[in-house]
Specification:
six-stranded mixed sheet
Length: 302
């Protein structure tokens, strides 16, 4: 064989195949667009801190505000989050008790994710404790933040648990503005209940169908005590846009926050490697080079 085909090489086709495979792998990795270099960095911004306290009691399922009071509130909050840029936002849910759903943050993506999971079932105790929500909101702001602070209470106003007006007054003394949005219509509505796949309506202990009505006087008193404004929602608008304008009028304060820096794209290195390997594969012949076959870099010496 060596006599008939003196320039044949058994190793070179294998080497070419391996180089070609490496080139293909590099191109595939480049197409996947690898990114590296993520890190936390501190950024400075000017804004306020905003806490939204959302009523998730059973009465918020009433359908006088379409599709229902709670769902319409969640949609309005989501739209508000889309308008924020340099402000921090936190989310509190309440019924008979109040719980922090999202601590104060500039992570608007997380805010919308947490918002999607809200339902009356996430609070074990039913009722409407507006005062507890305001008290929790006062504790939820950043301890070192000395700028403008706002609490927006979204509820139907049927407070049966505590002194919400007193809590709003205490917040105002701490420099925290309390706004209220009334979800519902004055004439009221029934509270739907799904039972075994059938839609019924909630009844009290005497068997009477419950009608939930918006308590505007209560919400007006809370807003007045909190030095804020009261807005009533309807089927056209919820009112968060109006409150957003009020928020924008407030003094912005410089604050620091840590965010993840953008990833750096590294795909260009793999493209370069892939092109180099393709060129190298082109240079490697499948047979020995007749000009260099007798060339030996290290000759044997006796």
């Amino acid at each position: 064989m060596s006599v008939l085909m003196p320039n044949v090489s058994a190793a070179r086709p294998v080497i070419k195949f391996i180089v070609l495979l490496l080139a293909l792998a590099s191109i595939i990795i480049a197409i996947a667009r690898p990114q590296f270099g993520s890190k936390l960095k501190t950024v400075k911004r000017e804004g306020i801190e905003l806490i939204i306290a959302l009523d998730v009691s059973n009465s918020m399922m009433a359908e006088d505000i379409q599709p229902n009071r709670l769902e319409r509130s969640k949609r309005a909050i989501s739209q508000l989050v889309d308008k924020l840029s340099d402000d921090k936002i936190g989310l509190i849910v309440f019924a008979g008790e109040a719980f922090t759903q999202l601590p104060i943050t500039t992570d608007y993506v997380s805010a919308k994710l947490f918002l999607n999971s809200i339902s009356p079932q996430i609070v074990p105790t039913q009722g409407t404790a507006i005062g507890a929500a305001i008290d929790l909101g006062m504790k939820s702001f950043s301890p070192q933040f000395a700028g403008s602070k706002v609490i927006i209470v979204i509820t139907d106003g049927e407070n049966h648990e505590d002194d919400a007006v007193g809590s709003a007054s205490n917040a105002a003394k701490e420099g925290i503005v309390v706004h209220t949005i009334g979800m519902g219509l004055p004439q009221g509505a029934l509270i739907p209940v799904n039972s075994n796949g059938q839609k019924t309506y909630r009844k009290d202990n005497q068997g009477n169908t419950v009608v939930t009505k918006l308590d505007e006087p209560m919400l007006q008193k809370i807003a007045e005590a909190g030095k804020g404004v009261y807005i009533r929602a309807n089927n056209t608008q919820v009112g968060l846009n109006t409150l957003f304008d009020e928020v924008n009028k407030m003094e912005k304060t410089e604050m620091e926050s840590q965010i993840y820096a953008d990833y750096d794209d590294k795909f260009q290195y793999f493209i370069g490697l892939g092109l180099f390997l393709i060129f190298l594969n082109y240079l490697i012949l499948e047979r020995k080079n007749k000009y260099f076959k007798n060339f030996k870099l290290f000759s044997d010496r006796k």
